[in-house]
Amino acid sequence: MIERIPELVNDDPAIVRWGRHMNETFMVEVGAQQYLLTVREGRVDPVSKGPFVMRPWRFAIRAKSECWEKFWQKVPAPGWHDLFALLRRGDVVFEGDQRILMAHLMYLKLVLAAPRRLAA
Amino acid sequence: MSARLEAITGRYAHIEIEGKTHRLYFEEAGQGIPLVCLHTAGSDGRQFRAVLNDPEITRHYRVIAFDMPWHGKSSPPEGWQAEDYRLTTGAYTRQIMAVAKALGLDRPVVMGCSIGGRIVLNLALEHAAELRALIGLQSAAFVERYYESAWLNHAEVHGGQACGAIAYGLMSPLSPDAHRWETVWHYMQGGPGVFTGDLFFYQVEGDIRERIGAIDTGVCPLYMLTGEYDYSASPKDTEAAAARIKGARVTIMKGLGHFPMSEHPDAFLGYLRPLLEEIRTKAG
Asked: Which site among A12, A88, A91 would you substitute to test the B interface, given the most B Cβ atoms closer than 10 Å to its Cβ?
């Protein structure tokens, strides 16, 4: 799912516009699997799949794979429908420079929810 | 093409609250039983646009939605530049009662959402005899901090964008896009630090858990309506509060989130109309 994010985001100007001031690399963990996403002016580079050795990132978003599965349902159930819904239930952890995450929160919510469009 | 005019009238009122004169903006429509609507933290009275525009409600109710001081088109009090805005239970309660008195409202129904849903619980404790009924939307007796609200008023984070992103997630994915993004826009227009100042009441000072058992719904009926997609004041939080209040009536609203009146007006009105009808026919 997560490797499809660049095409889903880059083909959607309504998402790209929210990230036009973002130029950062961040980590997403789906269970033990690490991914690095690099954003350039709202467009996402091809996703790098870990494991990584000493690769830099500004912030990380970590959740179990079962959580992302529920998050990526076409219509997620209550409590699984937003990044901060996961935060409230303690099912996601943010690390690193959280100012960057908060500065681009609207964009990041739309980016991370984009794989829902692939759900059956 | 000529304009389609809504039935809503907007006016400014100069009202004294706690020794300071405030220039408050309020909107109203309809005639009959006064129904005062309290918006959520960091937003304004536009959230109640559908209630104000509903002829089935305004036939029997005078619906009034005021923008709290510092919010919407209400000004902050003179000297605001020298203070931090921070809402408290006492100040919020006195503000609502001052507005009701200044506008000459006789035993109004008060309906509030989120922080408004919290404060109606305090109104039930302290002013029940002066009120006809209370409606708490997304009512919880307390919500512990689950994110750092200081980010919403930070020199290196755009406050409007961050507040909008917080509000966005609290809504149901099933609510219509146009109304969800309108709700986000209201949040993006809030003044710096105002949402954070409201959250001080919501997530720090306004813990009413120990007191709600004393609410007497025999004096003033209490209805609690909560959208199932809300993770701030979740159905579980509302049910936990209601379990301690004898006679509180709870409805969980399917497919709705934290801003039912604004994110999905049609679905919300379906829940609200019969309840207002019940209040009206019971009120002798």
From this structure: A88
**pLDDT given at position B282:** 86
DSSP type of residue A26: E
Q: Could you report how far apart the first and last alpha carbons of chain A are, in Å?
A: 12
> Cβ of B173 and A102 within 8 Å?
no
Residues B260-274, mean pLDDT to the nearest whole number:
98
The gap from C-alpha B87 to its chain's centroid, in whole angstroms, comes to 14
B229 interface with A at CB cutoff 8 Å = yes
Whole-number pLDDT of residue A110: 98
Give chain B's mean pLDDT: 97
Q: How many helices (H) and strands (E) does chain A have?
A: 6, 6
Global pTM reads 0.97
User: How many CA atoms, within 13 angstroms, populate the side-chain half-sphere of residue B185?
Assistant: 11
Closest CA to B111 of B185, B72, B76, B61: B61
**Residue from the list A81, A89, A102 with its beta carbon closest to the beta carbon of B162:** A102
Give chain B positions within 8 Å (CB) of A74. Answer: none
First to last CA, chain B: 46
The C-alpha angle with vertex A117 and arms to B162 and A34, in degrees rounded to 5, equals: 70
Q: What is the ipTM of this complex?
A: 0.97
How many residues in chain A? 120
Tell me the β-bridge partners of B252.
Answer: B226
